[in-house]
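Incident review: delayed structure delivery

Summary: a single-chain prediction request sat in the queue longer than the usual turnaround. Root cause was a stuck worker, restarted by the on-call engineer. No data loss occurred. The affected request and its eventual output are reproduced below so the record is complete for anyone auditing the incident later.

Affected input:
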Amino acid sequence: MSTTSSPELLARAVRHLAPVLPVLTELGERFAAAGHELALVGGPVRDAFLSRQSPDLDFTTSARPEQIEQVLTGWVDHLWDVGRDFGTIGGRRGDLVVEVTTFRADAYDPESRKPVVAFGDNLTDDLVRRDFTVNAMALRLPQVEFTDPHDGLADLAEGVLRTPHTPEISFSDDPLRMMRAARFVSQLGFVLDPAVQTAMTEMAGRLDIVSAERVRDELSRLLLGAHPRAGLEVMVATGLADRVLPELPALKLELDEHHRHKDVYEHSLIVLEQAIDLEDPPGADGPDAVPGPDLVLRLAALLHDIGKPATRRFEPGGGVSFHHHEVVGAKLARARLRALRYDKDTVKAVTRLVELHLRFHGYGTGEWTDSAVRRYITDAGPLLGRLHKLTRSDCTTRNRRKAERLARSYDGLEERIDRLREQEELAAVRPELNGNEIAEVLGIPPGPVLGRAYKHLLAVRLDQGPIGREAAESELRRWWEEQPESTDDGMPGAGSRPADRAGDNGA
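Output delivered after worker restart:
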Protein backbone atom coordinates (compact mmCIF):
# COMPACT_ATOMS: atom_id res chain seq x y z
CA MET A 1 0.00 0.00 0.00
CA SER A 2 1.42 3.40 -0.93
CA THR A 3 2.00 5.89 1.85
CA THR A 4 -0.39 8.85 1.98
CA SER A 5 -0.34 11.66 4.51
CA SER A 6 -3.02 11.78 7.20
CA PRO A 7 -4.56 15.11 6.02
CA GLU A 8 -5.00 13.66 2.53
CA LEU A 9 -6.60 10.52 3.97
CA LEU A 10 -8.94 12.57 6.17
CA ALA A 11 -10.06 14.70 3.24
CA ARG A 12 -10.61 11.54 1.19
CA ALA A 13 -12.73 10.00 3.93
CA VAL A 14 -14.95 13.10 4.22
CA ARG A 15 -15.51 13.11 0.46
CA HIS A 16 -16.27 9.39 0.49
CA LEU A 17 -18.82 9.72 3.30
CA ALA A 18 -20.50 12.80 1.81
CA PRO A 19 -23.51 10.87 0.39
CA VAL A 20 -24.39 9.42 3.83
CA LEU A 21 -23.30 12.32 6.08
CA PRO A 22 -26.85 13.73 6.34
CA VAL A 23 -28.09 10.30 7.50
CA LEU A 24 -25.22 9.94 9.98
CA THR A 25 -25.91 13.38 11.39
CA GLU A 26 -29.64 12.71 11.67
CA LEU A 27 -29.10 9.43 13.52
CA GLY A 28 -26.54 11.05 15.80
CA GLU A 29 -29.02 13.77 16.68
CA ARG A 30 -31.68 11.18 17.58
CA PHE A 31 -29.32 9.43 20.00
CA ALA A 32 -28.10 12.74 21.46
CA ALA A 33 -31.70 13.88 22.02
CA ALA A 34 -32.28 10.68 23.99
CA GLY A 35 -29.17 11.36 26.09
CA HIS A 36 -26.84 8.83 24.45
CA GLU A 37 -23.47 9.00 22.70
CA LEU A 38 -23.13 7.58 19.18
CA ALA A 39 -20.11 7.05 16.91
CA LEU A 40 -19.51 5.47 13.51
CA VAL A 41 -16.73 2.97 14.10
CA GLY A 42 -14.66 0.11 12.71
CA GLY A 43 -14.72 -1.04 9.09
CA PRO A 44 -16.89 1.76 7.66
CA VAL A 45 -14.47 4.40 8.98
CA ARG A 46 -11.43 2.49 7.76
CA ASP A 47 -12.99 1.90 4.34
CA ALA A 48 -13.91 5.57 4.02
CA PHE A 49 -10.23 6.46 4.30
CA LEU A 50 -9.44 3.83 1.67
CA SER A 51 -12.30 5.00 -0.62
CA ARG A 52 -13.80 1.52 -0.41
CA GLN A 53 -17.49 0.72 -0.26
CA SER A 54 -18.66 -0.68 3.07
CA PRO A 55 -21.92 -2.65 2.78
CA ASP A 56 -23.20 -1.72 6.25
CA LEU A 57 -22.71 1.07 8.75
CA ASP A 58 -21.52 0.04 12.22
CA PHE A 59 -22.09 2.27 15.23
CA THR A 60 -21.22 2.09 18.90
CA THR A 61 -23.21 3.82 21.60
CA SER A 62 -23.59 4.37 25.33
CA ALA A 63 -27.22 3.19 25.02
CA ARG A 64 -28.19 -0.30 26.15
CA PRO A 65 -29.95 -2.67 23.68
CA GLU A 66 -33.50 -1.78 24.77
CA GLN A 67 -32.64 1.93 24.52
CA ILE A 68 -31.16 1.40 21.03
CA GLU A 69 -34.46 -0.16 19.95
CA GLN A 70 -36.38 2.82 21.30
CA VAL A 71 -34.24 5.32 19.39
CA LEU A 72 -34.28 3.36 16.12
CA THR A 73 -38.03 2.67 16.21
CA GLY A 74 -39.71 5.01 13.78
CA TRP A 75 -36.46 5.92 12.07
CA VAL A 76 -35.70 2.57 10.41
CA ASP A 77 -38.16 0.70 8.18
CA HIS A 78 -37.28 -2.66 9.72
CA LEU A 79 -35.70 -3.53 13.07
CA TRP A 80 -34.12 -6.81 14.17
CA ASP A 81 -32.18 -8.31 17.03
CA VAL A 82 -28.66 -9.12 15.76
CA GLY A 83 -27.42 -10.26 19.16
CA ARG A 84 -29.02 -8.72 22.20
CA ASP A 85 -26.66 -10.53 24.56
CA PHE A 86 -23.80 -8.86 22.72
CA GLY A 87 -25.57 -5.51 22.68
CA THR A 88 -26.21 -5.33 18.93
CA ILE A 89 -29.45 -4.19 17.27
CA GLY A 90 -29.82 -3.92 13.48
CA GLY A 91 -32.09 -1.95 11.21
CA ARG A 92 -32.75 -1.03 7.60
CA ARG A 93 -33.70 2.40 6.29
CA GLY A 94 -34.29 2.19 2.55
CA ASP A 95 -31.16 0.54 1.14
CA LEU A 96 -29.09 1.51 4.18
CA VAL A 97 -28.32 -1.18 6.78
CA VAL A 98 -27.15 -0.10 10.23
CA GLU A 99 -25.95 -2.05 13.25
CA VAL A 100 -25.69 -0.33 16.61
CA THR A 101 -23.77 -1.93 19.49
CA THR A 102 -23.47 -0.87 23.10
CA PHE A 103 -19.98 0.16 24.21
CA ARG A 104 -18.24 -3.08 25.14
CA ALA A 105 -15.30 -4.41 27.09
CA ASP A 106 -15.32 -8.18 26.66
CA ALA A 107 -12.80 -10.97 27.09
CA TYR A 108 -12.62 -14.67 26.28
CA ASP A 109 -12.53 -17.27 28.99
CA PRO A 110 -9.32 -19.20 28.19
CA GLU A 111 -11.27 -22.47 28.03
CA SER A 112 -14.40 -21.17 26.27
CA ARG A 113 -15.35 -20.57 22.66
CA LYS A 114 -17.80 -17.85 23.66
CA PRO A 115 -16.89 -14.32 24.73
CA VAL A 116 -17.74 -13.05 28.20
CA VAL A 117 -19.53 -9.78 27.45
CA ALA A 118 -19.39 -6.70 29.65
CA PHE A 119 -20.96 -3.45 28.53
CA GLY A 120 -18.78 -0.35 28.79
CA ASP A 121 -19.66 3.27 29.38
CA ASN A 122 -17.29 5.25 27.13
CA LEU A 123 -15.91 5.27 23.59
CA THR A 124 -12.25 5.20 24.64
CA ASP A 125 -12.59 1.87 26.45
CA ASP A 126 -14.60 0.49 23.55
CA LEU A 127 -11.91 1.36 20.99
CA VAL A 128 -9.05 -0.21 22.94
CA ARG A 129 -10.75 -3.62 22.84
CA ARG A 130 -11.05 -3.64 19.05
CA ASP A 131 -8.92 -5.92 16.93
CA PHE A 132 -6.54 -3.54 15.14
CA THR A 133 -5.70 0.14 15.27
CA VAL A 134 -7.02 0.67 11.73
CA ASN A 135 -10.40 -0.50 13.04
CA ALA A 136 -10.15 1.53 16.26
CA MET A 137 -10.93 4.88 14.63
CA ALA A 138 -14.32 6.55 15.08
CA LEU A 139 -16.43 9.50 14.00
CA ARG A 140 -18.41 10.95 16.91
CA LEU A 141 -21.91 11.95 15.87
CA PRO A 142 -23.70 14.21 15.22
CA GLN A 143 -20.69 16.56 15.26
CA VAL A 144 -18.63 14.27 12.93
CA GLU A 145 -15.58 14.52 15.16
CA PHE A 146 -12.71 12.21 14.22
CA THR A 147 -11.35 10.15 17.12
CA ASP A 148 -8.14 8.14 16.76
CA PRO A 149 -6.57 7.36 20.17
CA HIS A 150 -4.31 4.57 18.84
CA ASP A 151 -2.87 6.24 15.71
CA GLY A 152 -4.87 4.02 13.40
CA LEU A 153 -4.74 6.60 10.63
CA ALA A 154 -0.94 6.56 10.63
CA ASP A 155 -0.97 2.74 10.50
CA LEU A 156 -3.52 2.90 7.68
CA ALA A 157 -1.25 5.24 5.74
CA GLU A 158 1.65 2.82 6.24
CA GLY A 159 -0.42 -0.30 5.61
CA VAL A 160 0.59 -1.86 8.93
CA LEU A 161 -1.54 -4.03 11.22
CA ARG A 162 -1.03 -3.28 14.92
CA THR A 163 -3.32 -3.92 17.89
CA PRO A 164 -4.64 -1.16 20.21
CA HIS A 165 -3.73 -3.25 23.26
CA THR A 166 -0.76 -5.59 23.37
CA PRO A 167 -1.14 -8.35 20.76
CA GLU A 168 -1.08 -10.99 23.48
CA ILE A 169 -4.08 -9.46 25.26
CA SER A 170 -5.92 -8.78 22.01
CA PHE A 171 -5.50 -12.35 20.71
CA SER A 172 -6.29 -13.84 24.09
CA ASP A 173 -9.56 -11.89 24.14
CA ASP A 174 -10.49 -13.27 20.72
CA PRO A 175 -8.13 -15.77 19.05
CA LEU A 176 -10.01 -15.42 15.77
CA ARG A 177 -8.32 -12.03 15.42
CA MET A 178 -5.20 -13.90 14.32
CA MET A 179 -7.10 -15.27 11.33
CA ARG A 180 -8.53 -11.82 10.76
CA ALA A 181 -4.99 -10.43 10.58
CA ALA A 182 -4.15 -12.87 7.77
CA ARG A 183 -7.44 -11.96 6.10
CA PHE A 184 -6.64 -8.23 6.17
CA VAL A 185 -3.25 -8.97 4.61
CA SER A 186 -5.16 -10.60 1.75
CA GLN A 187 -7.99 -8.10 1.45
CA LEU A 188 -6.17 -4.83 2.02
CA GLY A 189 -2.54 -5.57 1.20
CA PHE A 190 -1.40 -4.78 4.76
CA VAL A 191 1.72 -6.17 6.45
CA LEU A 192 1.97 -7.35 10.05
CA ASP A 193 3.70 -5.35 12.74
CA PRO A 194 6.57 -7.56 14.02
CA ALA A 195 5.02 -7.75 17.49
CA VAL A 196 1.75 -8.94 15.96
CA GLN A 197 3.50 -11.64 13.94
CA THR A 198 5.44 -12.81 16.97
CA ALA A 199 2.30 -13.05 19.10
CA MET A 200 0.46 -14.93 16.36
CA THR A 201 3.31 -17.43 16.12
CA GLU A 202 3.43 -17.97 19.87
CA MET A 203 -0.36 -18.12 20.31
CA ALA A 204 -1.45 -20.03 17.20
CA GLY A 205 -2.65 -22.89 19.40
CA ARG A 206 -5.28 -20.59 20.94
CA LEU A 207 -7.14 -20.79 17.67
CA ASP A 208 -8.21 -24.32 18.61
CA ILE A 209 -10.92 -22.96 20.95
CA VAL A 210 -12.63 -21.06 18.11
CA SER A 211 -15.50 -22.81 16.32
CA ALA A 212 -14.78 -24.31 12.90
CA GLU A 213 -17.54 -22.18 11.36
CA ARG A 214 -15.93 -18.90 12.42
CA VAL A 215 -12.51 -20.06 11.22
CA ARG A 216 -14.02 -21.18 7.92
CA ASP A 217 -15.62 -17.80 7.32
CA GLU A 218 -12.32 -15.99 7.85
CA LEU A 219 -10.49 -18.44 5.56
CA SER A 220 -13.10 -17.89 2.85
CA ARG A 221 -12.80 -14.12 3.12
CA LEU A 222 -9.02 -14.45 2.91
CA LEU A 223 -9.24 -16.57 -0.24
CA LEU A 224 -11.67 -14.13 -1.84
CA GLY A 225 -9.39 -11.18 -1.13
CA ALA A 226 -7.19 -9.36 -3.63
CA HIS A 227 -3.95 -10.91 -2.32
CA PRO A 228 -4.78 -14.41 -1.00
CA ARG A 229 -1.25 -15.69 -1.49
CA ALA A 230 0.09 -13.11 0.98
CA GLY A 231 -2.56 -14.05 3.54
CA LEU A 232 -1.82 -17.75 3.17
CA GLU A 233 1.90 -17.14 3.55
CA VAL A 234 1.16 -15.36 6.85
CA MET A 235 -0.86 -18.37 7.99
CA VAL A 236 1.98 -20.75 7.15
CA ALA A 237 4.72 -18.54 8.65
CA THR A 238 2.89 -18.10 11.97
CA GLY A 239 1.67 -21.68 12.33
CA LEU A 240 -2.01 -20.81 11.88
CA ALA A 241 -2.14 -23.04 8.82
CA ASP A 242 -1.01 -25.99 10.96
CA ARG A 243 -4.22 -25.54 12.98
CA VAL A 244 -6.59 -24.67 10.11
CA LEU A 245 -5.25 -26.17 6.89
CA PRO A 246 -2.30 -28.46 7.74
CA GLU A 247 -2.29 -29.89 4.22
CA LEU A 248 -0.90 -26.57 2.96
CA PRO A 249 2.39 -26.43 4.92
CA ALA A 250 2.70 -30.19 4.34
CA LEU A 251 3.27 -29.36 0.67
CA LYS A 252 6.71 -28.04 1.61
CA LEU A 253 8.30 -31.34 0.65
CA GLU A 254 12.01 -31.76 1.14
CA LEU A 255 13.58 -31.61 -2.29
CA ASP A 256 15.78 -34.49 -3.31
CA GLU A 257 19.44 -33.64 -3.65
CA HIS A 258 19.20 -33.30 -7.42
CA HIS A 259 16.02 -31.14 -7.27
CA ARG A 260 14.25 -33.39 -9.72
CA HIS A 261 10.79 -32.25 -8.67
CA LYS A 262 9.32 -28.83 -8.14
CA ASP A 263 8.45 -27.20 -4.83
CA VAL A 264 4.81 -28.30 -4.50
CA TYR A 265 3.98 -25.56 -1.98
CA GLU A 266 5.30 -22.81 -4.24
CA HIS A 267 3.65 -24.45 -7.25
CA SER A 268 0.25 -24.52 -5.50
CA LEU A 269 0.43 -20.82 -4.63
CA ILE A 270 1.35 -19.97 -8.23
CA VAL A 271 -1.55 -22.08 -9.50
CA LEU A 272 -3.87 -20.16 -7.17
CA GLU A 273 -2.61 -16.84 -8.52
CA GLN A 274 -2.92 -18.00 -12.13
CA ALA A 275 -6.44 -19.32 -11.54
CA ILE A 276 -7.44 -15.93 -10.12
CA ASP A 277 -6.00 -14.22 -13.20
CA LEU A 278 -8.22 -16.45 -15.37
CA GLU A 279 -11.45 -15.61 -13.51
CA ASP A 280 -14.00 -13.77 -15.61
CA PRO A 281 -15.21 -10.27 -14.72
CA PRO A 282 -18.09 -10.06 -12.19
CA GLY A 283 -21.39 -10.58 -13.96
CA ALA A 284 -19.84 -12.51 -16.87
CA ASP A 285 -22.29 -14.88 -18.55
CA GLY A 286 -21.94 -17.95 -20.72
CA PRO A 287 -21.87 -21.74 -20.25
CA ASP A 288 -18.28 -21.79 -18.98
CA ALA A 289 -18.03 -18.34 -17.39
CA VAL A 290 -16.52 -18.18 -13.90
CA PRO A 291 -17.14 -14.68 -12.55
CA GLY A 292 -14.61 -13.73 -9.91
CA PRO A 293 -13.94 -13.94 -7.12
CA ASP A 294 -14.91 -17.61 -7.12
CA LEU A 295 -14.39 -19.54 -3.88
CA VAL A 296 -14.74 -23.01 -5.42
CA LEU A 297 -12.10 -22.37 -8.08
CA ARG A 298 -9.71 -20.82 -5.56
CA LEU A 299 -10.10 -23.67 -3.07
CA ALA A 300 -9.58 -26.23 -5.83
CA ALA A 301 -6.47 -24.43 -7.10
CA LEU A 302 -5.01 -24.29 -3.59
CA LEU A 303 -5.80 -27.92 -2.76
CA HIS A 304 -5.34 -29.63 -6.12
CA ASP A 305 -1.98 -31.22 -5.19
CA ILE A 306 -2.49 -31.96 -1.49
CA GLY A 307 -2.35 -35.67 -2.29
CA LYS A 308 1.29 -35.45 -3.35
CA PRO A 309 2.99 -35.81 0.06
CA ALA A 310 1.15 -39.10 0.70
CA THR A 311 1.90 -40.49 -2.78
CA ARG A 312 5.50 -39.38 -3.34
CA ARG A 313 7.79 -42.19 -4.42
CA PHE A 314 11.46 -42.05 -5.37
CA GLU A 315 11.85 -44.19 -8.48
CA PRO A 316 14.92 -46.13 -9.62
CA GLY A 317 17.21 -43.81 -11.50
CA GLY A 318 16.39 -40.79 -9.37
CA GLY A 319 12.92 -39.94 -10.61
CA VAL A 320 10.02 -38.89 -8.39
CA SER A 321 6.40 -39.96 -8.89
CA PHE A 322 3.05 -39.04 -7.36
CA HIS A 323 0.83 -41.75 -8.80
CA HIS A 324 -2.90 -41.28 -8.13
CA HIS A 325 -2.31 -38.13 -6.11
CA GLU A 326 -5.50 -36.66 -7.58
CA VAL A 327 -7.56 -39.48 -6.06
CA VAL A 328 -5.85 -39.24 -2.68
CA GLY A 329 -6.04 -35.45 -2.85
CA ALA A 330 -9.78 -35.52 -3.47
CA LYS A 331 -10.29 -37.61 -0.34
CA LEU A 332 -8.08 -35.30 1.73
CA ALA A 333 -9.84 -32.20 0.39
CA ARG A 334 -13.24 -33.68 1.24
CA ALA A 335 -12.15 -34.47 4.79
CA ARG A 336 -10.60 -31.04 5.40
CA LEU A 337 -13.50 -29.06 3.96
CA ARG A 338 -15.98 -31.08 6.00
CA ALA A 339 -13.92 -30.46 9.14
CA LEU A 340 -14.15 -26.74 8.37
CA ARG A 341 -17.93 -27.09 8.02
CA TYR A 342 -18.14 -26.03 4.38
CA ASP A 343 -21.53 -26.68 2.80
CA LYS A 344 -22.12 -29.89 0.86
CA ASP A 345 -22.20 -28.23 -2.56
CA THR A 346 -18.82 -26.55 -2.02
CA VAL A 347 -17.25 -29.77 -0.70
CA LYS A 348 -18.60 -31.77 -3.64
CA ALA A 349 -17.49 -29.23 -6.25
CA VAL A 350 -13.97 -28.73 -4.91
CA THR A 351 -13.46 -32.45 -4.41
CA ARG A 352 -14.56 -33.19 -7.98
CA LEU A 353 -12.22 -30.58 -9.45
CA VAL A 354 -9.26 -31.98 -7.49
CA GLU A 355 -10.17 -35.44 -8.75
CA LEU A 356 -10.40 -34.29 -12.39
CA HIS A 357 -7.49 -31.87 -12.57
CA LEU A 358 -5.13 -34.34 -14.30
CA ARG A 359 -7.67 -35.73 -16.78
CA PHE A 360 -6.59 -33.40 -19.60
CA HIS A 361 -3.01 -34.71 -19.57
CA GLY A 362 -4.18 -37.84 -21.38
CA TYR A 363 -5.28 -35.67 -24.30
CA GLY A 364 -1.80 -35.39 -25.79
CA THR A 365 -1.96 -33.49 -29.07
CA GLY A 366 -5.59 -34.31 -29.71
CA GLU A 367 -5.66 -38.11 -29.78
CA TRP A 368 -8.88 -38.35 -27.79
CA THR A 369 -11.89 -39.75 -29.59
CA ASP A 370 -15.16 -37.83 -29.60
CA SER A 371 -16.31 -40.35 -27.02
CA ALA A 372 -13.50 -39.35 -24.66
CA VAL A 373 -14.31 -35.67 -25.15
CA ARG A 374 -17.98 -36.32 -24.38
CA ARG A 375 -16.98 -38.06 -21.16
CA TYR A 376 -14.72 -35.17 -20.21
CA ILE A 377 -17.69 -32.82 -20.61
CA THR A 378 -20.20 -34.96 -18.77
CA ASP A 379 -17.82 -35.89 -15.95
CA ALA A 380 -17.17 -32.21 -15.28
CA GLY A 381 -20.84 -31.27 -15.67
CA PRO A 382 -21.52 -27.73 -14.42
CA LEU A 383 -17.89 -27.49 -13.22
CA LEU A 384 -16.49 -27.51 -16.77
CA GLY A 385 -15.70 -23.78 -16.81
CA ARG A 386 -13.81 -24.07 -13.53
CA LEU A 387 -12.03 -27.21 -14.76
CA HIS A 388 -10.88 -25.30 -17.85
CA LYS A 389 -9.35 -22.59 -15.68
CA LEU A 390 -7.87 -24.98 -13.11
CA THR A 391 -6.23 -27.09 -15.81
CA ARG A 392 -4.74 -24.08 -17.58
CA SER A 393 -3.51 -22.56 -14.31
CA ASP A 394 -1.82 -25.86 -13.34
CA CYS A 395 0.91 -25.20 -15.90
CA THR A 396 3.76 -23.49 -14.02
CA THR A 397 6.67 -24.72 -16.10
CA ARG A 398 9.42 -22.24 -16.96
CA ASN A 399 9.91 -24.05 -20.26
CA ARG A 400 8.19 -21.66 -22.66
CA ARG A 401 7.87 -24.20 -25.46
CA LYS A 402 6.23 -26.73 -23.17
CA ALA A 403 3.85 -24.09 -21.78
CA GLU A 404 2.88 -22.96 -25.28
CA ARG A 405 2.37 -26.57 -26.40
CA LEU A 406 0.07 -27.30 -23.45
CA ALA A 407 -1.89 -24.10 -24.07
CA ARG A 408 -2.36 -24.94 -27.76
CA SER A 409 -3.44 -28.45 -26.88
CA TYR A 410 -6.05 -27.19 -24.43
CA ASP A 411 -7.22 -24.61 -26.97
CA GLY A 412 -7.83 -27.53 -29.31
CA LEU A 413 -9.77 -29.44 -26.66
CA GLU A 414 -12.00 -26.46 -25.94
CA GLU A 415 -12.68 -26.03 -29.66
CA ARG A 416 -13.72 -29.68 -29.91
CA ILE A 417 -15.92 -29.30 -26.85
CA ASP A 418 -17.65 -26.29 -28.39
CA ARG A 419 -18.16 -28.14 -31.67
CA LEU A 420 -19.61 -31.25 -30.02
CA ARG A 421 -21.85 -29.14 -27.81
CA GLU A 422 -23.24 -27.36 -30.82
CA GLN A 423 -23.85 -30.61 -32.65
CA GLU A 424 -25.23 -32.72 -29.82
CA GLU A 425 -26.45 -30.47 -27.01
CA LEU A 426 -24.20 -32.32 -24.57
CA ALA A 427 -25.24 -30.18 -21.61
CA ALA A 428 -28.49 -32.15 -21.60
CA VAL A 429 -27.17 -35.51 -22.81
CA ARG A 430 -29.54 -38.40 -22.12
CA PRO A 431 -29.91 -41.99 -23.37
CA GLU A 432 -32.13 -42.16 -26.42
CA LEU A 433 -34.64 -44.19 -24.42
CA ASN A 434 -35.95 -42.97 -21.09
CA GLY A 435 -36.60 -45.17 -18.07
CA ASN A 436 -40.22 -45.95 -18.97
CA GLU A 437 -39.28 -46.87 -22.52
CA ILE A 438 -36.46 -49.14 -21.33
CA ALA A 439 -38.86 -50.88 -18.93
CA GLU A 440 -41.37 -51.40 -21.74
CA VAL A 441 -38.80 -52.80 -24.20
CA LEU A 442 -37.36 -55.24 -21.65
CA GLY A 443 -40.53 -55.91 -19.69
CA ILE A 444 -38.92 -55.20 -16.32
CA PRO A 445 -40.13 -53.21 -13.31
CA PRO A 446 -38.32 -50.18 -11.79
CA GLY A 447 -35.27 -51.14 -9.75
CA PRO A 448 -31.51 -51.74 -9.89
CA VAL A 449 -31.66 -53.68 -13.15
CA LEU A 450 -33.46 -50.82 -14.87
CA GLY A 451 -30.80 -48.47 -13.51
CA ARG A 452 -28.04 -50.60 -15.02
CA ALA A 453 -29.80 -50.65 -18.38
CA TYR A 454 -30.13 -46.86 -18.28
CA LYS A 455 -26.42 -46.43 -17.49
CA HIS A 456 -25.51 -48.75 -20.35
CA LEU A 457 -27.48 -46.72 -22.86
CA LEU A 458 -25.96 -43.53 -21.47
CA ALA A 459 -22.48 -45.01 -22.00
CA VAL A 460 -23.46 -45.92 -25.57
CA ARG A 461 -24.67 -42.35 -26.11
CA LEU A 462 -21.36 -40.97 -24.86
CA ASP A 463 -19.27 -43.43 -26.88
CA GLN A 464 -21.14 -43.25 -30.18
CA GLY A 465 -23.09 -40.02 -30.09
CA PRO A 466 -26.72 -39.95 -31.32
CA ILE A 467 -27.58 -43.30 -32.95
CA GLY A 468 -31.38 -43.06 -33.22
CA ARG A 469 -34.19 -44.81 -31.34
CA GLU A 470 -34.21 -48.00 -33.45
CA ALA A 471 -30.47 -48.59 -33.01
CA ALA A 472 -30.78 -47.81 -29.28
CA GLU A 473 -33.51 -50.45 -28.87
CA SER A 474 -31.41 -52.98 -30.76
CA GLU A 475 -28.38 -52.27 -28.56
CA LEU A 476 -30.54 -52.50 -25.43
CA ARG A 477 -31.84 -55.95 -26.43
CA ARG A 478 -28.30 -57.12 -27.27
CA TRP A 479 -27.11 -55.98 -23.83
CA TRP A 480 -30.11 -57.61 -22.16
CA GLU A 481 -29.35 -61.01 -23.66
CA GLU A 482 -26.00 -60.96 -21.83
CA GLN A 483 -27.55 -60.24 -18.43
CA PRO A 484 -28.35 -63.09 -15.97
CA GLU A 485 -31.73 -61.48 -15.22
CA SER A 486 -32.86 -61.96 -18.82
CA THR A 487 -33.66 -65.65 -18.18
CA ASP A 488 -36.49 -67.03 -16.13
CA ASP A 489 -33.84 -68.41 -13.73
CA GLY A 490 -32.39 -64.95 -13.16
CA MET A 491 -35.63 -62.99 -12.86
CA PRO A 492 -38.99 -64.76 -13.08
CA GLY A 493 -41.10 -63.21 -15.77
CA ALA A 494 -38.28 -61.03 -17.15
CA GLY A 495 -37.93 -60.76 -20.88
CA SER A 496 -41.65 -60.71 -21.57
CA ARG A 497 -43.77 -57.60 -21.85
CA PRO A 498 -45.97 -56.53 -18.91
CA ALA A 499 -49.09 -57.54 -20.85
CA ASP A 500 -47.71 -61.03 -21.37
CA ARG A 501 -47.03 -61.37 -17.64
CA ALA A 502 -50.59 -60.25 -16.89
CA GLY A 503 -51.87 -63.02 -19.16
CA ASP A 504 -49.68 -65.57 -17.39
CA ASN A 505 -51.31 -64.53 -14.14
CA GLY A 506 -54.74 -65.47 -15.45
CA ALA A 507 -55.91 -62.16 -16.93
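Verification: Residues 227 and 297 are 15 Å apart (CA to CA).
Action items: add queue-age alerting; document worker restart procedure.
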